[in-house]
Write a structure and sequence with these properties.
binds 6-O-phosphono-beta-D-fructofuranose
Length: 550
């Protein structure tokens, strides 16, 4: 079957790229004062400005046709209807049902999933209210003050990111901790800060078989029992979030203390499910529901807006324009908000685990780039680390600049000094990356600084900037639960749009499974007395070297 890059629309886009690439972004803005108006979309208080991309009206028209060619809208509708679009795992993809706010049924495998979703939410409400009010007591009668979420990947990154992002909404008497790494340092450093009397462990694992999570959970249970010495107290201090009731019971957690979700919720799309329990405990269930509402609003927009006005679809298409036509395979997430410091790692899993694939839905090797190498850091910290490369490096890195207009934190003069400086840096970066600095501008600047003669000539090339670096700006009023919900869902649907156009299944993760499989083969070898000869030369030598010195 032919691939998308064989289509005539792809060929038209390739030709169009050749026509447009020699016109700089600076020229585009110079020629068209109305560019911002043409290339921005607003949804409630969320603004996407994509005018600083190498595009014209014609580009958007062609990209919209590409989305139509790939039937993005048809696939989107199939996802929302609960059809089995995760073909390799034979599952529906229904994380959107978890945030559905209307009364309509959503069917998966012949069953309406909504009653189950609502029941778990009710159970989460009861539980979080009890913990937050102090009604739920630990084994010595004290209220819970520390909540340790033990999980990894989607069972960690989403809740950790959201708890960090919504700190201003967090209950002061509860401290959320997240333990994910199998490296004993992670659990050990958290346990040092906790007292078993007031600690609640949340074992978060869709499968309840993940090696890191289960090892950490057993070690946490041992730590608890060593201090408490009474198995019957486990039920006051351990709860589970999982799809695997049997394994939860086997571990020794009362299934009454289990918050269920289902196989149609992908791990990296699961923060909306019971996996969000740590979020609800920290910010309260009402705020958690606001987060869900924000996600739902973005779903409605994604479902109903025409492609050219559809924020996630446009973001997905711009990504394809950069990756496949301008050959720019990385993407930076640059949030100008300290509380979004975990957004980039969260989106790394969401994007790279979803679209980091070279095999398409038909089992063919794709012959174009797919998911970008995604990375990032908060502003302004990143400016003093890697932005030099963004401005003058040989790699061009398309970036999303993300910025709240108002801060939760009053700091400095008038309570707004810090935030104004942050805002000005955000604006300055997107502007300078786009506009650059010409030879003549650099010369004028250097002359003004008082340099003379040869100094000027040798200095000009160093102070010249090509500009022409594509960026999107995402602005919103304030980082609230609802806005955060919109932003997360926006990225989920952007990833979906790209996966459909590349014809890959964004909902499996065989690469990760492969790593897990090999780790299981290696583990027993580390304890064997005799030298290992089972693997390749390098692997055997590494194992034997470790055995010699461990
Ligand atoms: O990283 C691979 C993965 O399978 C993710 O998709 C998932 O989020 C993570 O492991 C954790 O899985 P589980 O929730 O089953 O422990």
């Amino acid at each position: 079957m032919s691939q998308i890059n064989q289509s005539s629309i792809w060929q038209s886009l390739s030709q169009h790229k050749k026509d447009i690439e020699s016109i700089s972004l600076r020229e585009m803005f110079h020629k068209d004062k109305d560019r911002f108006n043409q290339f921005h979309i607003q949804l409630n208080d969320l603004l996407l400005d994509y005018s600083k991309h190498h595009i014209s009206k014609e580009t958007i028209k062609l990209l919209v046709n590409l989305a139509k060619e790939a039937d993005v809208e048809g696939w989107r509708d199939r996802m929302f209807k609960g059809e089995i679009i995760n073909s390799t795992e034979h599952r529906s993809v229904l994380h959107t049902a978890l945030r559905n706010q209307n009364n309509k049924s959503i069917m998966s495998d012949g069953e309406d999933v909504m009653p189950k979703v609502r029941n778990v939410l009710k159970k989460m409400r009861r539980f979080t209210d009890e913990i937050r009010s102090g009604q739920w007591k630990g084994y010595t009668g004290k209220a819970i003050t520390n909540v340790i979420n033990i999980g990894i990947g989607g069972s960690d990154l989403g809740p950790a990111m959201v708890c960090q992002a919504l700190k201003p909404y967090g209950l002061k008497t509860i401290t959320p901790f997240f333990v994910s790494n199998i490296d004993g340092a992670d659990l050990s450093q958290v346990l040092e800060k906790c007292d078993p009397e007031t600690t609640l462990f949340i074992v978060a694992s869709k499968t309840f078989t993940t090696q890191e999570t289960m090892t950490n959970a057993f070690s946490a249970r041992n730590w608890f029992l060593k201090k408490v010495g009474d198995n019957s107290q486990i039920k006051k201090h351990f709860v589970a979030l999982s799809t695997n009731q049997y394994a939860v019971a086997e571990f020794g957690i009362d299934t009454e203390n289990m918050f269920e979700f289902w196989d149609w919720v992908g791990g990296r799309y699961s923060l909306w499910s019971a996996i969000g329990l740590s979020i609800a405990l920290y910010i309260g269930i009402d705020h958690f529901e606001e987060l869900l509402k924000g996600g739902f609003e973005m779903d409605e927009h994604f479902k109903t807006a025409p492609i050219e006005e559809n924020i996630p679809m446009i973001m997905g298409l711009l990504g394809i324009w950069c990756i496949n036509f301008f050959d720019l395979p990385t993407h930076a997430i640059l949030a100008y908000d300290q509380d979004l410091s975990k957004l980039a790692p969260y989106l790394q899993q969401a994007d790279m685990e979803s679209n980091g694939k070279f095999i398409n839905r038909n089992g063919e090797h794709v012959n174009f780039h797919t998911g970008p190498v995604l990375w990032g850091e908060v502003g302004t910290n990143g400016q003093h680390a890697f932005y030099q490369l963004l401005h003058q490096g040989t790699e061009i890195v398309p970036a999303d600049f993300i910025m709240p207009i108002q801060s939760h934190y009053a700091m400095g003069k008038d309570g707004n000094e810090h935030h104004k400086i942050l805002l000005s840096n955000f604006i300055a970066q997107t502007q300078s990356l786009m506009i650059g600095k010409t030879y003549d501008e650099a010369r004028a600047e250097i002359e003004k600084q008082g340099y003379e003669g040869e100094d000027i000539e040798s200095f000009i090339p160093q102070k010249t900037f090509e500009g022409n670096r594509p960026t999107s700006s995402i602005l919103f009023q304030k980082l609230t639960p609802k806005t955060l919900g919109q932003i997360i869902a926006m990225y989920e649907h952007k990833i979906f749009t790209q996966g459909i156009i590349w014809n890959i299944n964004s909902f499996d993760q065989w690469g990760v499974e492969y790593g897990k499989q090999i780790a299981k083969q290696v583990l027993p070898k580390l304890s064997e007395k005799t030298p290992t000869t089972d693997f390749d030369g390098s692997t055997n030598s590494l194992i034997n070297y470790i055995k010699k010195y461990q």
